Amino acid sequence: MKHIIVVDDRSKAGKNLLEIAEILAENDQSILLLNEEEDQSLLKEMLLARESGTLSASEKEKFLNQLREEAGL
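Given the sequence above, the corresponding structure tokens read:
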């Protein structure tokens, strides 16, 4: 099961949680941190793919590479 946690990094608790998550993400590939800008970029890609129904081979490879890069894989 996967979970999504939304953190307001303007609060003290949010800053602390984010700092801990960043440390854990450095050592564990099962933890992925995305900021709001990256999240919106991925959403846009997904919605465009949904509208067209399919991705071309080059679009699919580009999208998967972007996901791998952001996940640090």
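The helical segments are 12-27, 36-52, 57-71. Try to locate this feature in the token string yourself.
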